[in-house]
Every structure is written in C-alpha cells, then in structure tokens.
Design brief:
Strand content: 15-25%
Number of strands: 9
Shape: globular
Structural class: alpha+beta
CATH topology of the largest domain: Nonspecific Lipid-transfer Protein, Chain A
CATH class of the largest domain: Alpha Beta
Length: 255
C-alpha cells in the first residue's frame, strides 16, 4: 500500500480541508461562536509558493473560505508547501507581509479557533462521552474528510489515478436525517460542496452519525457496515468504489 505523503498535496489538504472546516466549526461549535462574538470582520490570506492560495474571511460570527489570496486583512506568505505544513503542525511561524497592526486578530481569534477545531477533529475519549460534543466532532470530521477527497483526488498521484476512473456526475455522502455532502466530478476533477446532493448519480448513505464516526475513526470497516446495512450504496457503484480508494489515501494525509 502506498504510504508516502506528498507535501504539495498535504498543503492543499491542510488549507482547503482542515482550515476549511473552520467554516463549519463557526456554525456548529458554541466555543467558536463565543470567540467570534463581537469581533470586527477580518480576513486572513494564505499564499503558498508552488501551492494553494486562499482567504479565510470572518464576519458576523461566520467564516467563509475562498480561493485566491487578494483582498485580505492579513496576508501570510509561505516560501514552500513544507513551511505551510509546518505552520499547521506547529513547527513554523510565518511573518505577515500585510496587516501588522491586526496581528491581535491572529493570536486572540484565529489561533484560539484552530485550537477549538483541533479538539473536535482529534477528540479525547473523555470529550467523546458528551453526546453533544460527539455529534459536532463527527460532523466536522466528515466535512474535513469529504473536502480532503477533492484535494487528494486532484493532486495526489495515487488519488488522481482513482479520480481518472470516475465518470462525470455527483456523488452524495449522506447521514440519514442529519446532513449531506456532494462530491461533484467533471472531467475527473473533484469538487466538494458542503451541501446535500440534489441530483446524485451515486450515493453513500450512513444510517447514523455514530456509524459515520466509527468508520472515520477506524473502529469499524466499510465492508462490515455494508454487510449489516448500516451503510447503503446506490447508483453507479464504481464511482463510490473509486472515491473510497481516494478516502484510503485521505486517511494517510489526515493522520
């Protein structure tokens, strides 16, 4: 099994999947709402040489991720994908090229938000004893994994091989009566849309958040869940099969 991690792909995963989950954290987590309460609107741009560029914009308690690094309050440039990944794992501190007078927004708002998100994405066993915490944690992990599918499928060599086998159309990733995510495929390029799929060509449906959480944490296998009916698959199964191959790679990038 391929285990080597590509630093450029990891940078895309870290920006668009991991930091991108701040969008959902701000909607779901009370701790995030508390941090953003009363804060002035601001935005942080990430410009990675040879890699991704995006802006996280915070306004009225909400967060939005958009591609490109222009029009931001604070701009953080990175000389390489490795340095950006270093910021994510805490081994590199970038120097802003714009927004020096707004640095308190980084240290007192952005950093605390990322700490809250870390607690949800890598939860302790004690925290998971709370049903409310566990629900938010599972939803955020599913959003992160689904967003990472597109980044790995579009950038990782192994992921691109699997993506090349997926025909055009939309794949629905649903948790019954809870949430839905769309993976849109066009010309073997993947886009994750954090909204329910309206016109799926194939679908993967979890019977509950508990099942989704156990699968994401490795407590159960997809095959076992399919066998006992806790995961249903419909439509063009080869689309889901190749997406699941990409998900296998995603787990290595998110570990």
């Amino acid at each position: 099994m391929l285990t080597q991690i590509d630093s450029r792909t990891l940078a895309y995963v870290n920006l668009f999947a991991v930091l991108g989950t701040l969008e959902n954290l701000c909607e779901l987590a009370p701790e995030a709402k508390s941090i953003l309460k009363g804060k002035e609107p601001f935005s942080i741009g990430f410009a990675v040489k040879g890699g991704p560029q995006a802006v996280l914009a915070f306004k009225n308690g909400h967060c939005e991720l958009r591609e490109g690094s222009s029009g931001c309050t604070i701009l953080l440039p990175f000389p390489s994908c490795e340095k950006f990944n270093g910021m994510i794992n805490g081994t590199y501190s970038p120097m802003p090229s714009k927004g020096f007078t707004k640095l308190a927004l980084l240290t007192k708002t952005f950093v605390p938000l990322t700490e809250v998100m870390k607690n949800y994405l890598k939860p302790s066993k004690a925290a998971l004893q709370s049903p409310g915490f566990r629900e938010i944690s599972t939803r955020l992990m599913l959003y992160t994994a689904a967003a990472a599918v597109a980044q790995v499928g579009n950038n990782d060599k192994s992921g691109m091989v699997s993506a090349s086998q997926i025909p055009d159309g939309e794949i629905a990733i649903d948790v019954k009566n809870v949430m839905g995510i769309t993976v849109d495929v066009k010309n073997h390029r993947l886009t994750t849309i954090k909204q329910p799929c309206r016109n799926p060509r194939s679908s993967m449906v979890f019977s509950s958040l508990d099942v989704a959480g156990k699968l994401l944490s490795g407590e159960v296998s997809a095959m076992a869940c399919i066998s006992d009916g806790s995961i249903e698959m419909h439509g063009m199964l080869n689309m889901i099969d190749n997406m699941n191959r990409i998900l296998d790679r995603v787990s290595q990038y998110l570990s």
